[in-house]
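Could you help me review a protein record that somebody else here produced? What it holds is a sequence and that sequence's fold in token form. I need someone to confirm that the token line plausibly describes how this chain folds. Take the sequence as given and treat only the tokens as open to question. This is what I was given:
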Amino acid sequence: MVEINRSLAEIPIENLLPHREPMILLDCLIGHEEDTTVCLSTIHPGMPFFHDGRVPAHMGIELMAQTIAVHAGYPAYLERREPVVGFLLGSPKLETAEPFFEEGRVLRVEAHQVWGEAEMLQFACSLYDDGDDRQIQVANVNIFKPKDLWRYLAEAKR
């Protein structure tokens, strides 16, 4: 279990992610170890897909992907490098206990790297209600993190 360190929340989340508004869905980083990262997200009206006071639960996969991005982005931040870019490939397993997340709800997102050292990675991820610590969603998330992003993009154009 990763130690929660809420002083990490003082780091602006946009310094840890390659994303920009309005696609930044996380509030802050609250825990980081070699293989695990923990972030918080508060459901609010400015979020994409927010409608009738809630977002659909499938937004959880993007919260997980962004927490994985923070997992790579935090060490880059400490080394004064740009956030690392990776691509969500999908999830062979996603289980959710609820169809929606309501406005004002604070979700704790945990991502634990289970395999991969180079370009292909998999994380075991969970979403918890930060108020009552109840697990709401669980998924295995596959990520592609190119060693050289610009070279990969140039080759993909061909």
Observations:
- Residues 6-157 form a domain with the Thiol Ester Dehydrase; Chain A fold (CATH 3.10.129.10).
- The longest helix spans residues 59-78.
- The helical segments are 59-78, 149-157.
- The beta strands are 28-32, 36-42, 54-56, 87-96, 100-102, 106-115, 120-129, 135-144.
